[in-house]
Amino acid sequence: MNEHLTLKNKRLFRECREEAKRLKYKYVWVKNATILVRENDTSLSFAIRSTGDFTKFKNRGADRMEN
Question: Is the entire prediction scored with pTM above 0.85?
């Protein structure tokens, strides 16, 4: 089901999907108007509610790619 998102959250969701694809994350979805990301089947999901959260996600992925 496609949830209704604000324009800001639609853009944020698109950016998250693109970044997750680049970082090879397996899941990005929306539940109750919150963007959720999970690396694989066994990892914990985390919420992205703002551009600040998205920046943390990108930095987390950059750190992961370096190791």
Answer: no
